[in-house]
What does this fold into?
Amino acid sequence: MQAAEPPRTLIEKIWARHVVSEFGDGLSLVYVDRILLHERGGGIALAALSRAGRAVRDPNSVFATMDHVIDTFPGRTGAELVPGGAEFIDALRTGTAAHGVELFDLGDERQGVVHVMSPEQGIVLPGTTIVCNDSHTCTLGALSALAWGIGTSDIEQVLATQTLVIRRPKTMRIRLDGTAGEGVTAKDLVLHALGTIGAAGANGYTIEFAGALVRDMSIEERLTLCNMAVEFAARGAIVASDGKTFRYLASTAFAPKGDLWRRALNDWRKLRSDTDAVFDKEVAIDCGAVGAQVTWGTSPEDVLPIDGGRIPEPAQCRDPVRARRALSYMGLAPGAPIAGLPIDAAFIGSCTNGRLDDLRSAAEILKGRRVASGVRALCVPGSTRVKRLAESEGLDKVFTDAGFEWRESGCSLCFSAGGESFSPGSRVITTTNRNFENRQGRHVRSHLASPQTVAAAAIAGRIADARTVREGNR
It folds into this structure.
């Protein structure tokens, strides 16, 4: 009689399906289902293949988009703001044409930030393995895919062979339980988790996010949650597929159709961790008392609740030396409240919070209100599709009436990607995923928060809880 298979995690199940060969010491040759490229490196990898006389093994599995070096101004030309930007764009256009790879170019309604447009087009499917030359590829695990970022040399290998040699990650489950408070978003919850576990807390692991709050989240919220897994130093993140996953994918362009869809659903419904599966590490977070969050320092783990949060003493932090440097860079003093800190700029966008639901939640705060005098505010939709849908709902008018700049889709000021920067020394509240030194410009001080919080701060001219704006206070 054959022995029963031991219980396995979702991560282990997908991994096992894709192992081509085991090399020992945890190293495996793994088959990759989908390869995503953007212009900041994708064209370089394709050109290297051409020079070596190699072909892309399966062009139908590769998708490319313009997002990183393009500007986001209305009527953009796409390259002039970034030194060498035109060369990056031309290289991707040339490489994709030469190798028969689908390109979502400027002017294509499907163009967008790679981690936004690939889910909305159904390129990301449950149970698949996906790689991209970008660290935030972990975002795509929200649709129950095993997705991770790789470098340009690895992109060249996977394009030619459809495989990668990689070490099997350890497994971690982070359970988000409890009842979320009023106005508490997925961004707030993941920032709180980062503060709890730390920026190195998942090094070497792939995270499965689970628990009642995760099950209640929309797909857009799950994408935000998984997006920031790399900020824990995780290889990737994943959420078990469910009815929300299937409904989200049902009408997308690249999802299976007809009988293939029915067969796929039968398989996807099995994509969950077994009840008795053992994870290498378990973390449980009671989110019931979590309020709106904002970062104070230069790491995403430097996080505080807006309501009552005070800048910590360095000795209270995981790394007192780094904390002292962070306080100096951010121009903050221990003991000062985070609420009420004046800001110079506000940014809504990025692969973390540039989706339609993110824009809707910010617009709810902005409607009928104006950005504070002296505050520069921008909204950059995560994809052209998001931009068009937002405009069909009149959200663009809500933003512009409030005093926000309304842009084309792209990475933009997430990290000065489109050739722009905030003014030196500016204090910016932003929906992006990283608050590193100089990330959004020379000596720019970045505070990470949710779209609602960013909108509220833009109106107040200082870091503020969105609840106070809803109640009519500035």
